[in-house]
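As described in the Methods, two query proteins were run sequentially through the folding procedure within a single session, without resetting any intermediate state between them. The first query and its resulting structure tokens are shown here.
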Amino acid sequence: MANRSTVLQTVSLNIRTMLFDKTKIKNLEAKNRIVMAPMCQYMAPESAASNYHLVHYAARAIGGVGTIVLEATAIEPRGRISVNDLGLWDDQFIEPLSRVVTECKNYGSLVGIQIAHAGRKSKITNEPIVAPSSIAFNKDFPVPHELCSSEIIETVYKFAEAAERAVKAGFDFIEVHGAHGYLISEFLSPVTNKRTDEYGQNRALFLKQVLEKVKEKVPKDYPVLLRVSGEEYHPEGNTRKQLAELLLQLGHLYDILHVSSGGIYDKEKYEVYPGYQLAFAEELKKLTGKPVIAVGRLENPELAEKTLQENKADYIAVGKALLSDPNWVLHAAEKLGVDLEWFGVYERAKGTIKIC
């Protein structure tokens, strides 16, 4: 215990922590730099938010998360990854999501939603799945229907309509899902976009149109985040420099870049270790000049803090650790020697459990 106490004291005295700084996301203030990463829960058989979602997200808000991003939420039925995904293609989904948003805000969190389309990786079976090119993800998926130009425009408008509903539901911001081999990612990648028309000649065009139409449907100062795969783990995939070149033409259309990796290829080979995606975030931050959210095994509070101190990222996204421990933020503060206020009666538990 003495050694542990000494470490905490050293951190407290010699390093001004950044992880728990208040920070601005455009005109919004987040109470810390910790983001709950969007993680599919597969708990919406009717595609509407339920009491499960209310409890799941509110618990993390009570636990001190500054910014919560709800899981991938489909803009149309065939855009779901599974039949149990959340949807936002109809007004009926607004009120259930609004309940989740309101409850999380009651405990001081900013709340956003990730709007998404699964593309060729959809497991929906009652209608054809779609993609920029007719290339199956693997032998277990059907060959997708190649979207024609008019269908692409229809999909762009569906993203915008979902964004409009998100605003009505009270979300503080939107994250557009352009990562993990889903539809936008498929347009961006040379592995999956073999088109010869304008959408193939400029692989960022579809994303550009999505962001433009989304911006038209949200208030002027409304934050729009963008999630991308900083590494595709494929010999013919985008390099970080190529991805940055695609993103540079879009810089005026989004505010923060959320950098993940993978998903375009079913035979990816990479090692998962603490901070394994940090290099992607750091390089895209430099190449694009945009603030970035880093993600990927950053659950060690000291590593998260070090990442911010070394200017490798502006925000830290935590995923599985928050599934394991809804109070990860509070325990991380204890480990770094930061005295955070706990909510209500939970203050009684302060200091009783230490994060490893």
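Immediately afterward, the second query was submitted; its sequence and tokens are:
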Amino acid sequence: MYKTTNNNPISPVAIRTELFSRRSFGFIVEHNGRKHFKQEEALRILTDGEHTEFLYGGAAGGAKSWTGCTWLAFMCLTYPGTKWFIGRESLKRLRESTLLTFFKVCAHYGINRNKDFRYNGQDHYIQFANGSRIDLLDLRYLPSDPLYERYGSTEYTGGWIEEGGEVNFGAYDTLKTRVGRHLNDRYGILPKLFISCNPKKNWMYAAFYKPAKEGVLPPHRIYLPCLVQENPFIESSYISQLQSASDKVKKERLLRGNWEYDDSPNALCTYDAIAAIFTNDLAHRTGVKYITADVARFGSDKARILVWDGYVVIEQLCFDISRTTQIQEAITALRLKHNVPRYRTIADEDGVGGGVVDNCRITGFTNNARPIGGENYHNLQTQCGYRLAEHINASRIAIEAQVSTEERENLITELQQLQAWDTDSDGKLKLKPKEQIKADIGHSPDWRDVLLMRCYFDFADMEIPHCLDKGYFGL
């Protein structure tokens, strides 16, 4: 036991807290002659005066949870009276996993439960003897609270979103506005939102990984990858288990930290099949051409038009926020350029798209219309979405039109959102709803919509196309 000059003992916890406050993290990252360099870098970012949003991980076994629990425990001890949170999609899993790790961390560093802190299991918070507190938050998406207003009035010094791949964009978007509001100025603490994760193509991909990869990440954000091989304290058997996994997606994500693979068991298309549409030489032009158009509506910021030869996209146009007259003119120009008749030209008929359909006298696509032929789908959009997935997996679709690198990545991300959804509710096949996709990836799936409309013509001969029913013939 260390002693001060007046012979009073200094506890090991006080010594470690002082070391932490000086950003001397050796007692955390070093053990038996080995050092976790990535963990040390993570702790430096968590205590720096530069970054306010920090994404850490991108693979399994990097000591993400241990790092988060250690950071919060010692921030609470270092700065009395501060207020923090740990949030996860399910409070039950937070209590059964993350909270247990927190208790292990405290025991390891001599932070005594019921002396240095107490856990309130009824209201779900950890109260430190010095007045600091950590709230445990349930970050489930609730249809009754889509904007997470239940946390809109809370004030935190900082906080941690655990397993960000499970968490809705709205939770992240709300909680980042709630940090930096409790004793930050008094202690000179920068607001910190820490996010730990395994790879997931949701808002983390768009907000952190992709900009970091392209070198355009805003200065207040930072992404630090950490693979299992970079953790010197991991059990060797854990790495062997990941290496022996027969599931390619699991191995790519958890072992290699590959963000391009999505692990949803409901996915209708594989990542490899989706990525192959840009180099697919198995899809052939047939000479029969079609046009599909997704008209910007209900706050969407893009309108897309595709020209198809068979199932090969040969030309594409994209408009940012635009007038419907511009879209109508573009559709007409492309029809005349490629000699596409009205009945093989289709646009979504929902919202302002209805005006485009009527003015151009083309086929209308109504997402919530009944499926053609009475098949067991929730609606027409679902029927076409499932057929699109079949074509992608069978290598029957190709995109030969010029598409930027950014748009390719958006397209792949959106097609990975072609997922089955809530099938058991009434026995009908459903697609993941557009609002849920927006919440997960941060934007409307315009590519998905304009692609799946092409599949309408797979079924159109079963019923009279909308434009023919109205008497819209010829060019």
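DSSP finds 19 helices and 18 strands in the chain. We note this only descriptively and draw no conclusion about the first query from it.
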